[in-house]
Amino acid sequence: MKAAVITFPGSNCDRDLAVALERAGAEVARVWHKDATLPEGVDLVAVPGGFSFGDYLRCGAIAAHSPIAAAVRTHAARGGYVLGICNGFQVLTELGLLPGALMRNAGLKFICREVLLRVETSDSAFTRAYAAGQEIRIPVAHHDGNYQIDAEGLAALRDQDRIAFSYAPGINGSVRDIAGVLSENRRVLGMMPHPERAADAGHGGTAGAGLFASLMQELVSA
Fold first, then answer.
1. Is 194 annotated in the active site?
2. 13 has catalytic annotation
């Protein structure tokens, strides 16, 4: 599997994400936001957490207009895989690759701790290593992780089994406690929790490693 990890000014999880992908066996290239193209033959584009462009305007809004953004859209349009974590999730909603929006946390406080997540579907390249209904512990670190979507959009997510993860219990006011969602073709995942921070036993847990292993297995066998 060939992966590209995008770095924006203010990204702070790009190296962690690259290391987690490499540990899973991926060949990883680092891509600067001013690049206009992705490396040849990339299977997965990964958009990391952090505070791209200082979270000015809206979280992810400026990043969605960076030179690399058009290449990410093109990659997704031709069926490529895309993973956005935390600020990366915000960027993907701003790019229009995922529905909904990430708002200020209901408690108006930054949340930085390990939380319990429920795997809502195992029917995706990102989640096949888990069982639907399985609960895992993954760290979060966000101030704007309150996922909101209108009733029609929520119904589509539920009917199409596109809610990937939910908080158990809720932590930030997200509708239906949603923590991660999939695109219609199930090849784009955005999630607020940080699986790359739970992919090494030395960091306190490996529950997130399953996501990267699942991707690796899916793309290598494709």
1. yes
2. no
